[in-house]
Amino acid sequence: MLHRALAGIRVLDLSRILAGPWCTQNLADLGADVVKVEHPERGDDTRGWGPPYMVGEHVVGEHVAGEHVAGEHAAEDGSDARMSAYFISCNRGKRSVAIDYGKPEGAARLLELARDADVLVENYKAGTLKRYGLDYVSLKAVNPRLIYLSITGFGQDGPMADKPGYDYVFQGMGGLMSYTGQPDGTPGAGPLRTGVAVVDVSTGMYATSAVLAALYQRQHTGEGQHLDIALLDVAVALNANQGANYLVSGNNPQRSGNAHPNCAPYEVFRCADGHLILAIGNDAQFARFCDVAGRGDLMADPRYLTNSGRIENIVALRAVLTDVFPARTREEWTRAFDAAGVPWGPINTMEEVFAHPQVRHRQMQQTARHPVMGAIPMVRNPMLPANPNPLQPPPLLGEHTHSV
After folding, report:
1. How far apart are CA 394 and CA 404, in angstroms?
2. % of the chain at pLDDT higher than 70
3. Are 181 and 189 within 8 A, CB to CB?
């Protein structure tokens, strides 16, 4: 089973925020023993990124009831048993140890942990950990098999290597926001970021793949390596077809709202009682749509016979469809689309997402139980089937310091 694929692999997680923790959560989901190293006072920044917060079941006011509730499961100082939803989203399955490696004794403790680690993940500015003797060269000397993953904004070298950066910065800098948003001259025109930190999450996924490949390679070479993953690099790669469109044509992609740059009609339309997504991917699907809509004349129009023609004449086609859709409700349209094999989709709220029968069937919402926090709602890792074993919860700050 994949959920035990990395059993026996020890990961030291020195990362904070989202990209690094997303990677190490993937590794924990795959069975690795992930030890999250946090500052004894501050912990991961996202512990304070709320509301919303979950408060532990065994809490009186703002503090854990009792000096050492549930033994090692309480925070090391027995206080403040709460978790932000943000922290919960990317830290399940890990053990937390409180170490200040800015002090010599803390750096020595971390060095001892690194001797037996398989993977170390950090996302400090380039050169930061070298000041404490915790850079790759230093740790390679005591553990040649160590796979050392550095996640930074700009990479380990280059003219901007010493600069910090957040996801939002790279959505703009990498090009994503230049073509995301309503086009100029329309209501709400201007660049937009995505509603989730897509560069951070994608960096975490690229980093996960890199670690797995490095572990596989180590089986053949017996040696670890330094992995250099930069958010800017990922942001540039995420442009996908838009980046390729530019490289092939030399033309900058333009903001097109909810429309697709390469397929049409492929966007959001307003029905009599709300919105839906029409996703026409080929000419046959467009013909079926025209039949459902009672607009055979559109298929007879030479401007719309092919996808290329529809892209070239999207403004005129959009104007026609904007008048067509309000004639029926969403349910009427979607029943007809399903019967005819026309691709479409709803625009769900989070409440509707987790109530959807397919999402429920796939068991995407799961629960982890923590001895202090109680039941913590989680989202299943899509790499894994519905887990027959209980999910391991995110840790309190310093929860496992003594046991580790």
Report:
1. 16
2. 94
3. yes
DSSP-assigned beta bridge partners for residue 345: 277
Task: Indicate which residues carry an active-site annotation.
Answer: 200
Domain boundaries along the sequence of the chain: 2-236+364-379, 266-347
Of 119, 122, 100, whose CA–CA distance to 20 is shortest?
Answer: 122
3-state secondary structure of 135: coil
The model carries a pTM of 0.90
pLDDT score at 134: 97
The secondary structure of the chain in percent helix, strand, coil, rounded to multiples of 5, reads: 40, 15, 45
> Greater confidence, 328 or 389?
328
User: Over the stretch 123-168, which tens digit does the pLDDT of each residue have?
Assistant: 999 999 999 999 999 999 999 999 999 999 999 999 999 999 999 9
What CATH code would you report for 2-236+364-379? 3.40.50.10540
- DSSP letter string over 267-319? EEEEETTEEEEEE--SHHHHHHHHHHHT-HHHHHSGGGSSHHHHHHTHHHHHH
Q: Which CATH class is domain 266-347?
A: alpha beta
